[in-house]
Amino acid sequence: MNLNDEYYFNVKKKRPEEIFEKVSDYFKGEILSAYANSKTIMRIQEKITITALELLDIKKKEALFLDAGCGAGFASIYLNEIGFQTVALDVIGHFLQYYDISSLNPINSDMCFMPFKPNTFDAIISISALQWVFRDINSKNMRFLLRNLSKSYFHILKPNSRVIFQFYPKNKVLMETIGKIIADNTEFKGNFIIDNPNNHKKRKIFLLLDKQA
Asked: pLDDT per residue over 117-168, tens digit each?
């Protein structure tokens, strides 16, 4: 899960996940409402979801998806609209109540601690959430959470299935640390895919992982 040694990035601007200890401390009240009501964010997440689906390359027409850290459910709604069965999961209950997503089987739970049986899902998708789980390479607690997340996802995915994360790591070191922790603690095989790698405003980072039979 390593990139070319010559490629490097480091975002200097502080992001919400660096300022707030928990995602629920940030996404509440007016900020949560503004996010959930933003047509721009909805369009961006739909576009990211389309790219994620292309990378996942799911052949099964009635595949069961988990949208982990779904927020207001933009990715889940799109997946459902194009015919995939979808379970929407988020730790913030108000997100799950913002729109009527009852058909998406919404579950209020932490994406690091999955309440599902083994071999349940054909695919897992997570848009713009992983940076809240792991954002400090020196944090033992974050390393524990990422280890638990990766083991849980491997556990609940069916054989020959995939998980894809789109997320915003602050720099290359942090990104590659995430890849190493997952590789060291699971049998996932995978790699990073970066859209617009040299444009910090348009850069989108994906981590695609395979659970092989």
From this structure: 999 999 999 999 999 999 999 999 999 999 999 999 999 999 999 999 999 9
And the tokens for 186?
A: 């699971």
Tell me the C-alpha to C-alpha distance, in Å, between residue 69 and each of 13, 114, 160, 189.
23, 11, 23, 22
Contact between 146 and 129 (Cβ < 8 Å): no
CATH for 28-211 is 3.40.50.150
Query: What is the rounded CA–CA span in Å between residue 203 and residue 210?
Result: 23
205 exposure class (CB count in 10 Å sphere: 0-12, 13-18, 19+): buried
Q: Using CB atoms within 10 A of its CB, is residue 123 exposed (0-12), middle (13-18) or buried (19+)?
A: buried
Sign of CA dihedral 99, 43, 196, 164: positive
Where do the domains of the chain lie?
A: 28-211
- Is residue 67 within 8 Å of 46, Cβ to Cβ? no
